[in-house]
Specification:
With 209 residues, the chain is an alpha/beta fold. The protein has one domain: Monomethylamine methyltransferase MtmB (TIM Barrel, Alpha-Beta Barrel), CATH 3.20.20. 49% of the residues lie in helices and 12% in strands. The strands form 3 sheets. Strands 1-3-5-6 form a 4-stranded parallel β-sheet. Strands 2-4 form a two-stranded parallel ribbon. Helix 3 links the parallel strand 5 and strand 6. 45% of the residues are buried.
Length: 209
C-alpha cells in the first residue's frame, strides 16, 4: 500500500493544480516505487485539516475518475471530518466524500477519523457504517446525478460558519456501551437524522440502511 495526501492550498496550490499533482503522484507510487497493491489517497484542506471539504473532494474525484478510466490501479481514500461522533454533521461530511469516491471509481474507503483524527477516542463504528452505506447507495446513480446529490449535501453544511463551529461530539466511551460495544440510543438517533437528511438530498438509501 502506498499512502500520499496532497494539501490543497499548500505547495500544490489550487484545486486544479492539486488534482494534477494527485494524479501524478498516484501514478508515481505504482510506476516508480513499485510493489504496492493499492494507493491510499486523502487530499487535505490546508485550513480545515479535513478530507471532506468541497475542494478536497473535487481533487479526489477528478483524480479517481482519471485513473479509473485510464489505468488498472486499485485506489483508496481516507477520511478526516471536522465534526465528531454523535453529531448529524459528521454523517453529512463523510457522505460528501463517500459519494465522491464511489462515483469516481475508488475501490476502497478507509475511515472515518472523526474530529479531524486528532482527538483521543473520537471515532466510532457508526461513521464507518454510514460511509459504506452511502457508497452502496451511490452505485445506483450515474456521475452527473451523484454530483447533483453531492452538491445538495454540501448545501446543508458547507459554510464558513458551519466549519468554524463544527461540533466535536462525544468520545467512543460516551457513544457506546463499552461492555456490549453497542451504540447509544442518542447516537443511533443522530445517525438516523443524518441519513434522513441524505435521503432528502436525493441519495437513494432505501433498502440500504
Amino acid at each position: 500500500m502506498f499512502e500520499q495526501m496532497p494539501i490543497i492550498g499548500g505547495f500544490t496550490g489550487t484545486v486544479e493544480q492539486t488534482a494534477v499533482v494527485d494524479v501524478a503522484t498516484t501514478m508515481a507510487s505504482f510506476c516508480l516505487l513499485g510493489g504496492g497493491t493499492y494507493h491510499l489517497d486523502g487530499p487535505i484542506h490546508v485550513r480545515w485539516g479535513t478530507t471532506t471539504a468541497r475542494e478536497t473532494c473535487q481533487v479526489a474525484g477528478h483524480c479517481g475518475l482519471a485513473h479509473d478510466r485510464n489505468t488498472p490501479f486499485m485506489l483508496a481514500n481516507q477520511y478526516y471530518t471536522l465534526a465528531g461522533p454523535n453529531t448529524e454533521m459528521v454523517i453529512l461530511e463523510l457522505a460528501v466524500q463517500s459519494a465522491t469516491d464511489a462515483a469516481s471509481g475508488r475501490e476502497l474507503e478507509s475511515g472515518v477519523a472523526a474530529a479531524k483524527g486528532v482527538a483521543l477516542d473520537y471515532t466510532t463504528g457508526i461513521e464507518a457504517r454510514a460511509m459504506g452505506e452511502v457508497a452502496i447507495a451511490t452505485t445506483k446513480m450515474n456521475v452527473p446525478k451523484a454530483n447533483e446529490v453531492i452538491n445538495a449535501i454540501l448545501a446543508t453544511h458547507d459554510s464558513l460558519e458551519s466549519y468554524k463551529t463544527a461540533p466535536k461530539g462525544n468520545t467512543f466511551q460516551q457513544c457506546y456501551d463499552v461492555n456490549t460495544v453497542l451504540p447509544s440510543d442518542e447516537w443511533l438517533e443522530n445517525y438516523a437524522k443524518g441519513m434522513r437528511t441524505l435521503e432528502g438530498c436525493g441519495l437513494p438509501l432505501e433498502g440500504v440502511w
